[in-house]
Design goal:
The complex is a heterodimer.
Chain A (H helix, E strand, L loop, with lengths): L8 H7 L9 H4 L5 H12 L6 H12 L12 E4 L5 E3 L4 H9 L3 E4 L5 E3 L4 E3 L2 H17 L13 H9 L24 H11 L2 H8 L13 H12 L10 H10 L11 H17 L15 H6 L1 E9 L5 E8 L2 E3 L18 H4 L8 E2 H8 L3 E2 L6 E3 L4 E3 L1 E9 L3 E6 L2 E3 L4 E3 L4 E2 L3 E3 L5 H8 L15 E12 L4 E10 L2 E6 L2 E5 L1 H6 L4 E6 L6
Parallel strand pairs in A: 8-14, 9-17
Antiparallel strand pairs in A: 1-2, 1-3, 3-4, 4-5, 6-7, 6-13, 10-13, 11-12, 14-23, 15-16, 18-19, 19-20, 19-23, 20-21, 21-22
Helix pairs in contact in A: 8-12, 10-11
Chain B lengths: L2 H15 L2 H15 L2 H16 L6 H15 L2 H17 L3
Helix pairs in contact in B: 2-5, 3-4
The chains are: A alpha+beta, B mainly alpha.
GO biological process, one term (chain A): proteolysis
GO molecular function (chain A): cysteine-type deubiquitinase activity; zinc ion binding
Keywords (chain A): Hydrolase, Metal-binding, Nucleus, Protease, Thiol protease, Transcription, Transcription regulation, Ubl conjugation pathway, Zinc, Zinc-finger
């Protein structure tokens, strides 16, 4: 509720210029609204501790009811002149206002101030500020956390908007952000990744709102170049862009990718994320030495946590480590390591509703295989801290923490000692993916005997949507990369170097798939 | 107060005390945004404002003009889901 005791008397009078009655009870306590605060004081005072929230809730349940009819709903208002609660819908607060000539009341739901003389809600910047702040504190206390609040321009931003009146309107079908990239000599491995990155929503928002403040002395900051690249892509120019500066910077910072021969797009993705992450870290100099607590935009978007549990087969003690990851590399059937059968108890098919060995391999099949318990064998015994000796064990990978953008890398390029080849097995992937079965928390529930998790429609945390697909055509020696990107919901485009064409969802889902980019559907605030 | 409103008040009180009412409100808010209800109501509000004129319209005009249509536009699935959730909660916490 409102900390009305922060308002001074003159601010009260300013609330409604037509109000002439004096608010005399308040002058006694030096202008503080002591009357109302005595009614709501417990709420206004107790903000800090969590255990008090139930106390407050109890008080609210018993005391915030209409004094005339006892209702809690019906748009309850609190009189600002005395301790009186009245509902609005039944006009009980109106009766009170008329009889006592108390002309100001506050809506207990939204904090709006109603003036009975003007017969409407009135708007005061200071009151709104207080209401906003108190609402935020109340949500925190109730465990709801931060909620989305609309952007409001600062003075400086208003100035800039006035000086720059030209506006670009984004319609449902617009093609802003789509731009071809010239191939500078086998550079499609770079182009395809650039297309995926420039269409990653959060990354795009970060760069288009100028959030990168560069502290690098030289001109070789890759993050600055990315920023430039976004400006080029969203400029509205339709001619293909020539990314020579980007290429040069990549050669400078990732030497292993230099040269005009064909490179692996996945390697480029990891190298690019790594360089961007390193160059971003210079922004928060203090965090530069701690790779696990970086708050750069790359980490915020792409970094997840992979949990590895090694279970001793003798004492069943579990040793757990969590490692950060930017992508998940998945083995495919047809490679030299056997794919089928999957072990029981690692069930992903219920949630994502897909098939079994007799049909096409699916992405969830690959994920199930990735998260299955694996016997490490007698030649790879691990030292068990419980048994104090080397024992056979099983290892299992699960997702501890999912990134906002999950990138799946289908391991199509086999570089074993025996052969180098491309695995072209078709793997079907969905438009929407639920990662719940592969989470560490799901595994814990399964181990506690709760098999077959019911699909919880209320929990949206692990739902992902496909937004980019990188494909490779050709052989290991000579091939070509292209990218499908999602411009709007159900509107996809194919990016083939300089050529951008419209694509159907079928085109996307029928494609072979090499790198699959998924974006979390629902985002929360810290 | 008759028996029904007594019961309603008691349930309400329980919901508030356990903090469930706030959680239900959050759930409802999310569902109503998801199904597009909020956008529909926004459009209705704009109509009322156009009718009355931006300078003269009051909150009461909007409430009176939009409430009946707004209530009717809430999808049955959302109502069902909320009802289920309340029932489950009461079953869990009945005395």
């Amino acid at each position: 509720m409102l900390a009305l005791n922060t308002l001074k008397l003159d601010q009260w009078k300013r609330l409604c210029p037509r109000l002439t009655c004096r608010l005399s009870p308040f002058t006694r306590s030096g202008g503080a609204c002591s009357v109302v605060s005595s009614g709501n004081s417990r709420r206004a005072r107790c903000e800090a501790e969590d255990g008090v929230s139930t106390q407050i809730a109890g008080l609210e349940a018993k005391s915030c009811i209409c004094h005339l009819c006892g209702a809690h709903l019906n748009r309850l208002h609190s009189c600002l002149h005395c301790v009186f609660f009245g509902c609005f819908s039944k006009k009980h607060i109106h009766e009170h206002a008329k009889s006592k000539r108390h002309n100001l009341a506050i809506d207990l739901l939204y904090g709006g101030i109603y003036c009975f003389v003007c017969q409407d809600y009135i708007y005061d910047k200071d009151m709104e500020q207080i209401a906003k702040e108190e609402q935020r504190k109340a949500w925190k206390l109730q465990g709801i956390g931060e909620k989305y609040s609309m952007w409001e321009p600062t003075k400086r931003e208003l100035e800039l908007l006035r000086h720059n009146p030209k506006r670009r309107k984004i319609t449902a079908n617009c093609t802003i952000g789509l731009r071809g990239l010239i191939n500078l000599g086998n550079t499609c491995f770079m182009n395809c990744i650039v297309q995926a990155l420039t269409h990653t929503p959060l990354l795009r928002d970060f760069f288009l709102s100028d959030r990168h403040k560069c502290e690098m002395q030289s001109n070789s900051c890759l993050v600055c170049e990315m920023s430039q690249l976004f400006q080029e892509f969203y400029s509205g120019h339709r001619s293909p862009h020539i990314p020579f500066r980007l290429l040069h910077l990549v050669w400078t910072h990732a030497r292993h990718l230099a040269g005009y021969e064909q490179q692996d797009a996945h390697e480029f993705l990891i190298a690019a994320l790594d360089v961007l992450h390193r160059h971003c870290k210079d922004d928060n100099g203090k965090k530069a030495n701690n790779p696990n607590h970086c708050s750069c935009i790359i980490d915020q978007i792409f970094t997840g946590g992979l949990q590895s549990d090694v279970t001793c087969q003798v004492c069943h003690g579990v040793s757990t480590t969590i490692d950060p990851f930017w992508d998940i590399s998945l083995d495919l059937p047809g490679s030299s390591t056997p794919f089928w059968p999957l072990s029981p108890g690692s069930d992903g098919s219920v949630v994502n509703g897909d098939g079994h060995p007799s049909g096409a391999t699916t992405l969830t099949d690959c994920l199930r295989r990735f998260t299955r318990p694996e016997h490490l064998g007698s030649s790879a015994k691990i030292k068990c801290s419980g048994c104090h000796s080397y024992q056979e064990s099983t290892k299992q990978l699960t997702m501890k923490r999912l990134p906002i953008v999950a990138c799946f890398h289908l391991k199509r390029f086999e570089h074993s000692a025996k052969l180098r080849r491309k695995i072209t097995t078709y793997v079907s992937f969905p438009l929407e993916l639920d990662m719940t079965p592969f989470m560490a928390s799901s595994k814990e529930s399964r181990m506690n005997g709760q098999y077959l998790q019911p699909v919880d429609s209320l929990n949206n945390d692990n739902k992902y949507s496909l937004f980019a697909v990188v494909n490779h055509q050709g052989t290991l020696e000579s091939g070509h990369y292209t990218t499908f990107i999602r411009q709007h919901k159900d509107q996809w485009f194919k990016c083939d170097d300089a050529i951008i064409t419209k694509a159907s969802i079928k085109d996307v889902l029928d494609s072979e798939g090499y790198l699959l980019f998924y974006h979390k559907q629902f985002l929360e605030y810290e | 107060m008759n028996k029904e409103s007594q019961m309603r008040a008691a349930i309400n009180q329980k919901l508030i005390e356990m903090g469930e009412r706030e959680r239900l409100k959050e759930l409802l808010r999310a569902k109503l945004i998801e199904c597009g209800w909020r956008d529909q109501v926004k459009a209705l509000c704009k109509e009322v404002i156009k009718e009355k004129g931006l300078e003269n319209v009051t909150v009461e005009d909007l409430v009176a003009g939009v409430t009946p249509k707004g209530r009717a536009l809430v999808p049955d699935s959302v109502k069902k889901e909320l009802l289920q959730r309340i029932k489950a909660f009461l079953a869990q916490h009945s005395t």
